């Protein structure tokens, strides 16, 4: 690994893992993008793009009609001075104009990776793990400086990018657009992948060819959202799960984002990503600065699995933080689908008794324990225990749960307020709203204005009191609606469009404070299931509730899609009751177990309503998962068969030393007289023999190259799980 600058060629060369990323200064300080891909020793910059007099591509230097920014591949393009493609940034001056001209000023290369002030970001533990390059660009006319921040990791094909704006001049500047990165690919011969969805149907994989014009994934909902995820990839036409070139872009942010690819007239592709410029501006007074969030860019020449494995390892070990980062996560049971709002201490303790007997480790009390919360129409914001339901408080309940041998966890939704609450009656201006307009409700609730410091401070104190009041070791941090009428009573008119981003900065401060005050608590984020399953949240909370849809068949797609970017340890997956509450399907307990055991495992049902046989099966599932959980949560994950492409799905987990593996196979619908199918495994040691429990001993080479014949079974929604262990034959 090294980041170098060659003063002769004026080239910057970042070497990250086995990849190269090359930039070059052209003419009077334009920063051009030259190459990104498999490591090279050298690239001849000027040969990488055309120097032709192109019609309708104007020239900043009238004496050279072959030079236009419209045809120059760039790193941080502007609009207004000859490039007509989507810009990375746009700044308005006091005179109303929006033309700026950033040129190279200076640069700095150093070991390690700096933190991003107030924002989540990947990090290093030792400065040898990465090298950072900062390139300072400046607009001499207005004293604007933009520092492009690049970090290249040593171990992975990972480059992170962000940008910092500094107003060093004397006038007020307004950022209209401040994306985190932009990169120009010399060709558009790629497919692109994004992860659209909906509540209960998050992160379905869509792959389609790039076409001329703009294609984008974005959120305007005030959260990263169920509807789109802050991730896209460019995928070579011949690339699949196991081979071919893939470029991943993942945004470490939980709010409005834009991820876009523009294919231009010359069939080049510009990828840009950052805070969504839609409804965003930021006022930069003289002396002020603005930091964009980070984009994590991964190059893989090993197909989509190669890309995902890089994201998994990086996000598990250098994005997630805290005591639980490397720790096996407890098997939990959540009372939501068991009782909804209808519970009391006696009922909960009764359920907990059976759960403890089955070996479950953590009891989570979901919504309904506070204020007058008997349904979802009231009391958010009133974080005071409901003594009618819990006469001995959280402490009394938690102690009884502890005595049964289980830990105690709690649900909170601290970013919200119900109009029907004490908090709202006292502070009606503490929610997002605009003057003189109605406040639209979602699930009968309003969004607290986290752009306000006083609101954040109040929440930190109130929730801290709750968490300190009982032996709580787990928190589910929920967020159940998106933002409307986005405005803040604490901001002046010219800063209203800063509200959504200021909210995120406030939220990040609150989460930072909470997780630092309570380092012994495992935090899981949630937003109506996986509505905020993003890297920003994972920085503070190492796991996320993947989806409110717990149906095993639906989960095949949801978990498969989520695994494109996010580590298995981060993916909450629970067995729930049948008929399933979201889709009405009846899948066997075995299949439900196999799907949930492919993630961060737990249950979400009333265990006392099950038969003795079912309870025994749960006991076995719990014991089995405890045995394989290190492998599942921290092993290398391979997707084998895609549920988006057919009737089957399969994946596997391999231990770091390849001595152990776990394979899961699912078939959705039965077919009469079906052809035989073979499943080819991945990631094993070809020279090693493996025992598959119940099936005998096979060579790693045989399992990977010839495959294993799938036993024929009749019935819908069937699953199989095999455990492999290296043996001497
Ligand atoms: C959201 C969550 C659920 C549950 C409910 C409680 O929908 O995703 O898991 O906690 O809220 O109201």
From TrEMBL:
* Keywords tagged on the record: Glycosidase, Hydrolase
Q: Do you know which CDD domains this protein is assigned to? A: GH36
Q: Which GO terms describe its molecular function?
A: alpha-galactosidase activity
Q: Which residues form a coiled coil?
A: none
GO biological process terms, semicolon-separated: carbohydrate catabolic process
- Its recorded name reads Alpha-galactosidase
In terms of Pfam families, this protein maps to:
Glyco_hydro_36C, Glyco_hydro_36N, Melibiase
> Catalysed reaction(s)?
Hydrolysis of terminal, non-reducing alpha-D-galactose residues in alpha-D-galactosides, including galactose oligosaccharides, galactomannans and galactolipids
Q: What are the EC numbers? A: 3.2.1.22
- Report the active site residues: 478, 548
Per UniProt, substrate binds at 199, 366-367, 443, 476-480, 526, 548
Q: What's the family?
A: Belongs to the glycosyl hydrolase 36 family.
Per the record's keyword annotation, is Cell membrane included, yes or no? Answer: no
**Annotated PANTHER family:** ALPHA-GALACTOSIDASE C-RELATED, GLYCOSIDASE FAMILY 31
Every Glycosyl hydrolase family 36 N-terminal domain range: 29-285
């Amino acid at each position: 690994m090294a980041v170098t600058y060659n003063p002769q060629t004026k080239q910057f060369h970042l070497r990250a893992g086995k990849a190269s990323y090359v930039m070059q200064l052209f003419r009077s300080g334009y920063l051009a993008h030259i190459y990104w891909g498999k490591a090279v020793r050298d690239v001849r910059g000027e040969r990488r793009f055309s120097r032709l007099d192109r019609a309708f591509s104007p020239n900043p230097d009238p004496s050279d009609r072959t030079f236009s920014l419209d045809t120059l591949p760039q790193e941080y393009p502007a609009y207004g001075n000859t490039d007509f493609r989507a810009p990375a940034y746009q700044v308005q001056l006091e005179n109303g104009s929006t033309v700026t001209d950033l040129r190279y000023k200076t640069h700095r290369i150093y070991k390690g990776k700096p933190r991003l002030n107030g924002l989540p970001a990947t990090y290093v533990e030792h400065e040898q793990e990465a090298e950072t390059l900062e390139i300072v660009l400046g607009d001499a006319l207005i004293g604007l400086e933009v520092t492009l921040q690049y970090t290249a990791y040593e171990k992975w094909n990972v480059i992170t990018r962000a940008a910092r704006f500094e107003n060093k001049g004397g006038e007020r500047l307004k950022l209209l657009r401040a994306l985190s990165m932009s990169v120009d690919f010399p060709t558009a011969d790629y497919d692109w992948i994004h992860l659209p969805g909906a509540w209960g149907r998050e992160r379905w994989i869509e792959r389609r060819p790039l076409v001329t014009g703009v294609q984008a994934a974005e959120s305007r909902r005030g959260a990263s959202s169920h509807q789109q995820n802050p991730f896209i990839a460019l995928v070579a036409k011949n690339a699949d799960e196991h081979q071919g070139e893939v470029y991943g872009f993942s945004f470490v942010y939980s709010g409005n984002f834009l991820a876009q690819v523009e294919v231009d007239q010359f069939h080049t592709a510009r990828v840009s990503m950052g805070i969504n410029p839609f409804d965003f501006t930021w006022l930069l007074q003289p002396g002020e600065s603005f930091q964009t969030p980070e984009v994590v860019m991964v190059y893989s020449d090993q197909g989509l699995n190669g890309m995902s494995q890089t994201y998994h390892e990086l996000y598990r070990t250098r994005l997630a933080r805290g005591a639980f980062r490397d720790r096996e996560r407890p098997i939990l049971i959540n009372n939501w689908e068991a009782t909804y709002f209808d519970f009391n201490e006696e009922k909960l303790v009764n359920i907990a008794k059976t759960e403890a007997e089955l070996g479950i480790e953590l009891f989570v009390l979901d919504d309904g324990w506070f204020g007058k919360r008997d349904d979802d129409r009231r009391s958010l914001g009133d974080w005071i225990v409901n003594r009618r339901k819990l006469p001995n408080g959280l402490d009394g309940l938690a102690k009884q749960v502890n005595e049964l041998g289980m830990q105690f966890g709690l649900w909170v939704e601290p970013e919200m307020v119900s109009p029907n609450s004490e908090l709202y009656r006292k502070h009606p201006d503490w929610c997002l709203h605009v003057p003189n307009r109605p406040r639209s409700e979602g699930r009968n609730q309003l969004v607290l204005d986290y752009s306000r410091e006083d609101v954040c401070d109040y929440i930190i104190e109130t929730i801290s009191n709750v968490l300190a009041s009982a032996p709580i070791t787990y928190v589910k941090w929920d967020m159940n609606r998106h933002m409307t009428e986005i405005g803040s009573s604490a901001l002046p008119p010219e800063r209203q469009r800063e509200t959504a981003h200021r909210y995120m900065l406030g939220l990040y401060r609150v989460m930072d404070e909470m997780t630092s005050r309570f380092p012994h608590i495992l935090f899981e984020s949630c937003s109506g299931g996986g509505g905020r399953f993003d890297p920003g949240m994972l920085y503070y909370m190492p796991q996320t509730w993947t989806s409110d849809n717990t149906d095993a068949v639906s989960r095949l797609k949801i978990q498969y899609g989520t695994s494109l970017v996010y580590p298995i340890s981060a993916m909450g997956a629970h067995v729930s009751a049948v008929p399933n509450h979201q889709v009405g399907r009846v899948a066997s307990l075995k299949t439900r177990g196999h799907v949930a055991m492919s993630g961060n495992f737990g249950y979400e049902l009333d265990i006392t309503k099950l038969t003795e046989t079912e309870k025994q099966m749960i006991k076995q599932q719990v014991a089995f998962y405890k045995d394989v959980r290190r492998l599942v949560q921290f092993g290398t994950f391979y997707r084998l068969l895609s549920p988006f492409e057919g009737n089957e799905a399969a994946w596997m987990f391999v231990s770091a030393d390849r001595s152990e593996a776990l394979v899961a196979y699912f078939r959705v619908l039965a077919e009469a007289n079906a052809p035989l199918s073979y499943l080819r495994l991945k990631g094993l040691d070809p020279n090693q023999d493996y025992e598959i429990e119940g099936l005998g001993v096979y060579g790693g080479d045989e399992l990977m190259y010839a495959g294993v014949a799938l036993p024929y079974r009749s019935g819908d929604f069937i699953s199989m799980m095999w455990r492999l262990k290296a043996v001497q034959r």
